Q: What sequence folds into this?
């Protein structure tokens, strides 16, 4: 549910519900409903504009209605087929694509299409511009990885400097969090500012069978919620012994790293022969 995220953005903007309602031309009850994950899509879009945030998770478009239409088109579904899949009526889909309808219907679509909806700043990218966010995998480390997996199906959080050998690269413009991760081997080295979102998506894509094996290079942060909720026990983990170098830097990173591998029990031994570290297996 993204209602609590909207509430957090409102509070960071130092606005009360009454102040936001006045600014948006809404009632206080309408604001409360949206923060509870209820109400109408039209009200939701009004609040998003006032807080300068946007709904993410769906394919990119200028409106929520456009996002739903793009999702449907991407799957090759008619309005009737989408309605049947989501337990909704065809008129409901039509209303949603016109920017009308209920938020509950939007959640139903997200659930049936295995999409996590969340909100983020308009100006914020999954790839922050700061030097501390994009830690490109070095050629030296990738050489070891590619000895075990010569080619990945997708590099899901790629950029123009990526050296990953993959058939497809999801760049910032593709919004990797809004794409399907289908294939035998998926590589993830995502931006650290939004890493929990990428980990959540990796866990989902593996569970729903789209991705057979996902290898994620991550900072070793065992004190985080995403580590305990989405990685420990669910993925094989290799805590890398030495600190890695990233990009073309000759200096080691100021933090330790680990590999989280969903569906990768068949390659763990080969990886450990090349990458010194400690293996924490996934639960059976």
A:
């Amino acid at each position: 549910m993204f209602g609590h995220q909207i509430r957090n953005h409102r509070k960071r903007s130092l606005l009360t519900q009454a102040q936001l309602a006045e600014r948006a031309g809404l009632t206080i009850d309408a604001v409360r409903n949206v923060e509870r994950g209820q109400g109408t899509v039209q009200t939701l879009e009004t609040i998003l504009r006032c807080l300068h945030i946007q709904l993410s998770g769906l394919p990119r478009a200028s409106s929520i209605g456009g996002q739903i239409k793009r999702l449907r088109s991407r799957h090759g579904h008619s309005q009737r087929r989408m309605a049947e899949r989501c337990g909704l009526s065809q008129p409901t889909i039509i209303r949603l694509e016109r920017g009308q309808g209920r938020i509950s219907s939007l959640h139903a679509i997200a659930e049936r299409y295995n999409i996590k909806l969340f909100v983020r700043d308009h100006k914020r990218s999954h790839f922050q511009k700061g030097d501390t966010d994009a830690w490109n995998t070095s050629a030296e480390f990738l050489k070891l990885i590619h000895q075990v997996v010569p080619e990945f199906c997708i590099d899901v959080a790629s950029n123009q400097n990526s050296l990953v050998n993959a058939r497809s690269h999801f760049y910032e413009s593709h919004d990797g969090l809004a794409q399907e991760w289908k294939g035998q081997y998926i590589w993830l080295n995502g931006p650290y500012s939004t890493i929990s979102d990428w980990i959540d998506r990796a866990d989902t894509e593996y569970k729903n069978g789209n991705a057979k094996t996902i290898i994620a290079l991550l900072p070793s942060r065992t004190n985080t919620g995403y580590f305990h909720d989405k990685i420990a026990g669910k993925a094989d983990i290799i805590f890398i012994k030495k600190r890695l170098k990233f990009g073309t830097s000759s200096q080691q990173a100021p933090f330790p790293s680990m590999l989280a591998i969903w569906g990768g029990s068949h390659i763990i031994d080969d990886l450990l022969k090349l990458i010194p570290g400690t293996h924490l297996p996934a639960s059976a």
